[in-house]
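tool_log.txt
---
The assistant was asked to compare two proteins side by side. It first ran the structure predictor on the initial sequence, then on the second. Raw inputs and outputs are pasted verbatim so the downstream comparison step can read them without reformatting.
(1)
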Amino acid sequence: MGEESDLCFRLLARGHEIRYVPGAVVEHLVDPARLHPRWFFQRAFWTGWSEAMNGLAHRRLRKVAGLLRWHYRLRAFRLPYRPRGEPEAARVRAECERREALGYLLGILRWAPVRGRLVQTEAAG
């Protein structure tokens, strides 16, 4: 996950522009298994994880940590939601936000130490 974000970071770093085209149309074939809240919860976690990895690869650590503080902090501490019966859309969305926040936090904890070693190695070389 996060290939599009990584591509955008690389293009911007090379001086290219990224543009939003609101009229663009994309067709997706969706596997019915991806319509269950469990799939959305997993996807949200890995989205947060990928955002942390891409952020650490392309941005300063302060900016990556700032996103954790200002965007994700309140979401990470919500109570978990596990639907029983018919899921409630608002609660599924809130749980996705919570899982994305947790993925982001854990992604930072996992990848920040590696990022630091890579920066030191480049400086030494």
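(2)
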Amino acid sequence: MPRHEKRVAWQCAEREIESFLPLYQVRRRWKNRQTATVELPLFPNYIFVRIDPQERVRVLKLPGTLWIVSSGRQLLQVSDDYISALRGGLLAHRIEPHLNVEAGDRVCITTGPMAGMEGTLVRQKNELRVILTLEMIGRSVAVEVGASEISYIGAALGRHFLQPT
């Protein structure tokens, strides 16, 4: 379930189920202007577990767990090398989530003075540039924002796959 990853990881440890919840650190500013460093899941809604396929019910019974990623009745496995690389990257603080958007996608600015404004994403160099069109007057403005300050709305023309929201 959303925002239950840490609780599920704790329950796995309590029940001696080998698990891995990749977390990264980020500075957040609250509405009262206080800032704090918080740990968030690198892959929201997911936790890695090492189980025998016969133990799947044991994991599904954990509160906050909805399903196990599988193809039919076959559990999908992640290689030990991939998990090791994730652990190493997180320890070195070199891994953080990346918003899966492309130039031309519709996005919404989520924080700051332009919060709630929608526009089209344009990538330039290492920064994100969102072009907002003020439909009332038919003019556009460019706003530079960080990747953490936008959310995905719709795909660019020609993209035919689903995006997370």
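---
observation on (2): The chain has three helices and eleven strands. Residues 125 and 144 are 12 Å apart (CA to CA).
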